[in-house]
Amino acid sequence: MNLRLASQRLDDIAPDPEPDWSFDALVSELNALENKLDATSSTQPLHIHKTTSRLNLSHGKEIEKSKRFVLRAPEYETESEDEDDKALVVASTGKHFTCDDLYLSDSDDSDVDPAFEVQPYLMNKVGEVEGALIELTHEHQLRVTDEVRNKISALETALLNESQNSLSSLLRVEKYKETRQELDKKFDTQYQRQIAEALDNHLTAVQRDRELRSQIEERKIRNDAAYEEAKRKVALQEEKQQQEKAKAEAEAKHKAEEVKQAALEAERKAATEAKTKAAMEAEKRTAAEAERRAEKDLVENSKMVTSGVTLNTTSSLLNTEAKESGYVYRAAASALNIEHGRLQKLKELCDRNQAVRSSSNQDYTRHESHISRNIRQIRGIRDNVRSKASEIIKIFNDRQCPQTFSVEIFVKKVVSSCSSPASAPFAIAYVIVLITSQVPYVMDIFLAELHKACLYTVPKHMVYKKTIFQSQEAYFRSIGYREEDEKLESTEDYLKRLESYMKVYGALVQTEIPNIQNLHGLQEGWAWLARFLNSLPANQYTAVSLNAFLQVAGYALFRRYKSQFLKMLNIVSNNFLVDLKSRNVPESTKIVANIQAYIEDKMFLQVPEGKNLQSNTLSSAKEP
Hints:
Blueprint: H1 3-6, H2 23-40, H3 128-264, H4 269-307, E1 321-324, E2 327-331, H5 333-359, H6 365-376, H7 382-396, H8 403-418, H9 425-436, H10 442-453, E3 460-462, H11 472-478, E4 483-484, E5 487-488, H12 491-510, H13 522-535, H14 540-561, H15 563-582, H16 589-600
Antiparallel strand pairs: 1-2, 2-3, 4-5
Helix pairs in contact: 4-13, 5-10, 6-7, 6-8, 7-9, 8-10, 9-12, 12-14, 13-14, 14-15, 14-16, 15-16
């Protein structure tokens, strides 16, 4: 049997001798094969004979060959294992495998280490089956080795590819991260820009809406003022027509009576007519004289200011002493008449309200608190004063509360708030002008209440006479000193309150609002100044009043009257201040210095503080 026949497979293991194996690899594979055979073979166990001899192979020596095929495998003893040396020699001649003795040359030219010298025998002889098994085992070991190597190579390749893929993935992740960060930055910048644009658009829209509302409110106020003015004109025209009609009827009736009496009393006609004509002429002369005297002061003031004539405050021609309720006042007759008319209107309104209160149990506390709250919230801001004026007008028009009640409460609360030096006189005056433009009679009621609180707004001065007043305290009470806990306030506190009242009055006469008529405008301020210089004496009270009025209204008076106002200031400097200095009152020194500094420094050229109402809380805009 040849070698092909001897290499038949046994248990799926084919022998494939490999003479070029290393000894360590051969030992390792043999151990693995033995372990596998021990574990799987149960019917006919195969044994591999172990040898204890070592084979020392010599380079350059030839082994004699016999008639049989000889397979040699040197056995080595490893230091790490205790197993015997293993050798496998497979020889095949026909149907049998034999191992002959090895021939090793004893030449001295061998380079092999003495430890590998040839032993007297290589391995024990084995049978044919065992040789085939060895070859099959060797072939299986080669195949397993190749598979292991291929798997290791595949694993290394897969590990390398996985490493490269991981590195590539990391690079892609880093690149994606950087790209994402850049995109986030761009998106953040774009989002911030959008927010800024949206905020800007919102603020612009809010500002535009505020301006639109302000324009609508102003247009509404102008329309309401125009409507009220038209109503007032129509009412005046109707009243005038009624008066003319009544006058015509009265004249017709009078003529009819005269004709009737002339027919009935023909005999006494001449004497009766003569007496009647004389009486009528006397009455007409008396009335005309009274009217001329009432207007005399203002006419003479204008003439004297225009011609530059110096006023004499002690002259009986320019001063009028009037007795009222037992007191003696220094004032112009026209001013007293106007004051009397205003006080009469206030008295009638209060009497009417008192009659309603006594006949009705309705409580108007809510309206009073509402008015008080609006007055306390008045500030020097244009939108604020317009809104407060609108709120108060709404209260006046509320049908749940009579308008006379609301007006009485309003004037009393406003005058009470004017007594504080911290009040805003220009803002209060602005509100009063807006309200009186739609409810005109409120102006006279307010001025009457202001005259009661401060007689120098008339202007008039109460003369101190011992025959009238039992003591100076009684006189102080009469001119407006307050009393708390049966003790009069100090003169300093009284003068501060007096100054506050005069500033509000000065702010009222100089307040001008476009398309709205001020019923007590700048011409009334000019008349007040003329009456003041003509009639009132120079003392501490009148000096404080004059200084407060000039500080607030002097700027507007100069713009309107120019050189005539300067002549008025010359009269103040040359007459009023000289007379005040001659009295040698230490308390008047400071106020004299203030008035003199106002004139010399031309402070009337400067806009008074607070005159220009602010458009909002951050910026201010001038009133036309």
